[in-house]
Design brief:
The protein is mainly alpha-helical and 167 residues long. It has a two-stranded parallel sheet. The protein contains five helices and two strands, in the order E-H-E-H-H-H-H. The chain has a domain at 109-167. 53% of the residues lie in helices and 6% in strands. Helix 1 (20-27) links the parallel strand 1 (10-14) and strand 2.
Length: 167
């Protein structure tokens, strides 16, 4: 991607990342200056986008799915998942000493964190609504353009037929 901006605070993925490696590389753009940052994944719950993606193996889909949602009902430390995949580390069970805790390991770490988490959830919901609204607006514009192109094509065909009848 070539992005070398150290003070990026937030990366937003609109839709589920295609591969865990892509996710790691893209989300790693945030917080390069060592300050706290976050990554937000906005996805459609119906999962139909992935059903249509025949280029993805079930294994690759499963990795991203486990990273986002956990394994079964149990959430897994985000770093354990990434380090296991990228570095093939098998002995890590949670964020390590000296690391900023991921959202899974940081649960229940104090009331201040819980207040921040509530604010973050509200902020994420507003951001999600804004992104979804923009996506709907873009879809409307794209449909209008497509309809205009179809109508233009039909007019051109009618004009061509009229020209043929004149000969």
């Amino acid at each position: 991607m070539g992005v070398d901006i150290p003070d990026i605070r937030c990366i937003v993925h609109v839709d589920r990342p295609q591969m865990l490696l892509n996710y790691a590389q893209e989300s790693g753009r945030a917080g390069q200056d060592g300050r706290k940052s976050e990554v937000i994944v906005i996805e459609d719950d119906d999962g139909k986008a992935w059903e249509d993606d025949s280029n993805q193996t079930e294994e690759k889909k499963g990795l991203v799915q486990r990273y986002i949602r956990g394994k079964g009902d149990m959430a897994i430390c985000r770093r354990v998942m990434l380090n296991g995949y990228l570095d093939e580390r098998k002995n890590q069970i949670r964020c390590e000493e000296g690391e900023e805790l991921c959202d899974i390991c940081g649960r229940g770490e104090g009331s201040k964190d819980e207040e921040m988490e509530e604010e973050t959830v509200e902020k994420r919901m507003k951001e999600k609504e804004t992104v979804e609204k923009r996506m709907r607006e873009e879809e409307i514009v794209e449909k209008r353009i497509e309809e205009e192109e179809i109508m233009k094509g039909q007019k051109e065909m009618e004009q061509a037929k009229e020209v043929q009848h004149e000969f």
